[in-house]
Sequence to fold (1418 residues):
Amino acid sequence: MTQKELHNQRLVKEAEQTVMRMNTRRHFLKESAMGLGALAFGSLFGSCSNTTAQSSSVVFDPAHPLMPKLPPFAAKAKSVIYLHMAGAPSQLELFDYKPELMKMDGQDCPPSLLEGKRFAFIRGVPKMLGPQAKFAQHGQSGLWVSEHMPHLSTVVDELCFLKGVTTDQFNHAPAQLMVHTGSARLGRPSLGAWTTYGLGTENQNLPGFVVLTSGGRNPDAGKSVWGSGFLPSVYQGVQCRSEGDPVLFIKDPDGMSRDLRKASIDAINQVNAEEYKAYNDPEILSRISQYEMAYKMQIAAPEVMNINNEPQYIHDMYGTKPGESCFANNVLLARKLVEKGVRFVQLFDWGWDSHGTDASLAIDLGFINKCRSVDKCITALLLDLKQRGLLEETLVVWGGEFGRTPMMENREGKQNPYKGRDHHTEAFTIWMAGAGIKKGFSYGETDEIGYSTISGKVEPYDVQATILQQLGFDHEKFTYEFQGRQFRLTDTRGKLINDILA
Amino acid sequence: MNKKIVFIVIIATLVIATGWMMGANSKPVDFTTQVKPIINKNCITCHGGVKQKGGFSLLFREEALGNTESGKPAIIPGDPDNSELIRRLTLSDPEDRMPYKHDALSKEDIDILRQWVKEGAHWGQHWAYAPLQPVAVPQPTSFFGLFHTSSSWVTNPIDNFIEQKLTDNNLQPSPQADKQTLLRRVSLDIIGMPAPEKIANSFLADNSDSAYARLVDALLASPHYGEKWTSMWLDIARYADTKGYEADRGRNIWKYRDWLINAFNTDMPYDSFITKQLAGDLLNNPTDADYIATAFHRNTMTNDEGGTENEEFRTSAVMDRVNTTWQGLMGSTFACVQCHSHPYDPFKHDDYYKFMAFFNNSRDEDTEADYPLLRQYTTTDSSNLLSLTRWLAANVSTNSAKAYYSFLKTWQPTINSLQCDQFKNAALVSSWYAGMRNNGSCRLKQVTLNGASQLMFRYTASVQNGVWAIHLDSLNGPLLTTINLAAVKEGWKIAAVSIPATDGVHDLYFTYHNNTIDNPETTGVLFEWFCFGQPFPGRGKPGYDNAYHLFWSLMNAPVSTTPVMFENPDYMHRASYVFERGNWLVKGNVVNPDVPKSLNAFPAKAPRNRLGVAMWLTEKQNPLTARTMVNRVWEQLFGTGLAETLEDLGSQGIPPTHVDLLNWLSYQYMNEDHWSTKQLIRTIVMSSTYRQDSKMNSDAQQNDPGNKLYGRFPRTRLSAEQIRDQSLCISGIMSGKMFGPSVYPYQPNGIWLSPWNGDEWRQNTGEDQYRRAVYTYWKRSAAYPSMLTFDGVSREVCTVRRIRTNTPLQALTTLNDSAFVDMARHFALRMQQSGANTPTAQIQKGFLWATYHPIDDKSLLSLLQLYNTALQSFSKDEQKTCEIMGGMNVHTTAATAALTVVANAILNIDELMTKN
Fold:
């Protein structure tokens, strides 16, 4: 076939495709009151909970499930980067400055803090543990940040702290699920899945929801923290990897050149075009376009996942180590992905579970190393997004799944070999930046030893509601019907944290 | 002011006009299809199961006609003009007009409601809640003999139903599909993969009228039938090879999967099929197979994480069983009522917990070992067990023989040590086992001793000379006994000691002392379970010593285990409560086991346990069981259920396209076919409806784009399992091996990375890497990636419908996944070794194998072109040739490499992804 013939063929195909797309869409809309659309038309039909009618009209088109869609109202954020420190970092060594706690260092924990409480590992009467870091005020805003985050202190005026976050889950897996899916049980869609379900994604050559992990392990709750739950599986997070194929099965088999792959996809699509002539089924055209997209994704994904081509000053800024698997590399990738139109990027960094059971999990040793590994690159991310004008439309969220106790952990009643803190549900810190969130602001307060939240208490549901709000959704109206009821990310809970919106 | 008058005049005119029009319409308003949808859409959120604003609810007729907060009823049957309901719909004051703060109802909707009230506000029963009745099959009509409908098209009654609707819509059915298409379609549908060569060839060679029927029978008789339908059932049963939650450790439960395959293959009647799964353990003299069937409800997740509350996760598993029973077996969204009365369907909040009470008394308690387990012995031990029970029957009693049989098969009933509390210097270690240090104590509460004179327990101890004392009712209470605990070298040990015979129910207080322990932090003993009872009976009878010895050797014998159901004996009965707003910590009234009043009554003679539930479910009066299964089988064959929402046949589900057909098939299934699933499938695939061509002619597209009338066979993308199995078959490497532990085919590195769990994916070698998809190891938190990409589900909870998507990641999988590339290589070799000598002939042959039909010229040209391009490039590049053949050194010729590229392409064409 000559170039011209090929070109003509493509033109015809594209035209056919457009016609069919419109057809399927029209049919789809026509049937939506009865068919698949009814699933997505959510609370148009009322709901189990008290959401009222007329909600998001998210249409799920199985032939083009990731086409970009507009949110119900104007959005501040086009994309989200969620940095999850899996294992739960200590708020008491980072952002929640508690000089009073220092005074109690080494004393027995007062019984009032233990009565009626359950801890994951603390038994009997533990000792109090003062902050294992020096704190100072930074920036115009004068917000407190510890010495463990020297770089981040310099951009504190971009951040908005939530210091009164609480949860009701004190084990990693359920708590991580709570933060990302709004339920401690498995089986609910994650924040990223909801987002791509509601908004699709800008770049069809890349997955819409990308997950990057570091620290040697996946998060405790496994892939369910980026799962699609009851939403169609196309909305689950695609785990991109820094070793092996960046996306599963993206690499051509050994021995298959790019040209040959191109030739083979052309051949497949030519055979499929014959099939279409015989059957007239638009689904065949959709398959043809999926194969074309797959081919483009094979170029686009490794390209965006390759950080080698970044200029040296960027590497210096982030502290990246090309060729290795580390959090800094993932942070740089997050910026690249968002820049390329990926809707939701979620990073999990494993190793923040500072129990004090060994040196790497000691609050005065391993924890400091963990801080070093994230401080510089996260700061670079914020500055880099800002200099590219992307921070205004990118919501950056940082946090863990719960907090850590002001007490020193004594596992099963024994002194731990190193200084550590147990899981704590009653107070922890999350920060956000960008996309219409107040800058240099702190919301919520804990008591003088950082044990309980005394004002500005928020739950993971509230954080989720706020993230959805910035993406252009009312969390109460953004629903999906499953097992006969309208489900939403925030379940029956969730209050928008109005005070932190700029 | 003027505006208002004009408005009122218009309304009045409309009302009069429509009243007249409605009067002229002789057909009465139908509640279910006309009224209920309006109510569900506009009213029920505030006036239903969740909220009853103004004291008014539209869920049940007695509520709707009852007095509201105003003291008057809102609906007066026969009198729409004086019915507040109608008045409120037409007001102009937004404060009073309903629906409150929403757009007014359309004139049409209001007219329907008005007419409905006028006709007496009769409540209709939702189609799926009415018991099944015989359904008249529509007969083709002839208009004064002037013309006939095409009744020659009809093969069986299914077609009458389909034809009637097509005719009503001026549509024609499509002609029958060609033989090759039918062969591939019906094979994929019945056995989930292309037909074995012998079956395929004899069909293609058979030109008689009965050829197709013979093909269908051969496929239904194939052992692969059971594998395909098991794949479907595993989603419902939320089967997985791991326990779920954080660590997601392995679980041996594959014998349940094998049980399903056998059950489908022997065409076990569906009523027995679900009875055994719900309550096989409660049948008389349950066999191993009956026990294994009950693993259905042991596929719930178990949480092994430290610090978790076992009761919370036990409760969660029980609720999951309730939800799965309703969702999977009755197509109902009963799960809704765990928090409040159902907003749309006739189920009340209490109904959930009454039903849950049936399931609340199984022995499982979220233990790490997944107790209760069925213990399956070696052949020798099985015959030992047989002789032991015979001895007991002859020398003690048949009851005793039965009890010992059951105990040896399950180690039940025993009390798990995780029931201990009040730990002092002791702890529930990892939230799994009660462990005690020197001078430690704990409590085991409310133990029914019933005259027990023996304590059997399973424990482990790292140190000698531990002394375990048991006090009654308090730490200082009467001493029941003191037990010296010997150290256990390895693993666990079961010991039995005599205790003074004691009656009644007591809290037992345990203390542990061991003066040889220096380190106060040493755990002296770990207990797993306790069993209070009587010593082995029959002392003094001939053969006692031998029997006693057999008993102990069987207690400790090597066994393979499967988690199963086992019911609490009466003395371990758990009370069941309503959970306020679904919160298990906020317990309301005590409830007794019962079924919702709105469905068929609980059978009079049925026991109030899981067996009774099974009897209730499989009673012919149960309106949901047969419909749910028939609808599901239809969905497997046609891609969409007759009622599209398999998960919800209730009033919020999408109504069936052919409700009479669904009812007819369901009635037939129960009554004529005696729950034979094979017969149901045979009836459907024999119909002309099923045998239609799937090509879209333009008429059909215009008038029925969604194919809701079945004017053609619906093309459907294959399931994840079918895609794998088909490729294995075409490549000629499918292993025919059935049954056994789950297998590990090729999977990329780094998929499994659970914290606290060093399990690794150990890729099989040999034929196990080419087993059917149904045997693939399924880890909930990291399921087999290529199957997930094709919409497989993670199986954390019951999923009755997979949503099919079409994404580039799917293309990447079948193009590049090493498992599929490997298949392409074997496919290429198979083409070469077929006797076809030219590339053209080889491609023709391969395409024929893959699709059963010859390749068209244009497609052949495209593939040949690909072959030549590939051949050219490989001829110049030995390295790449070797690579693409994956080190198959014997075959590293450029020609084979080029053919492999073509094979890879064929395995990716749309026709193979789809059922035509």
Notes: The first helix of chain B runs from residue 2 to 24.
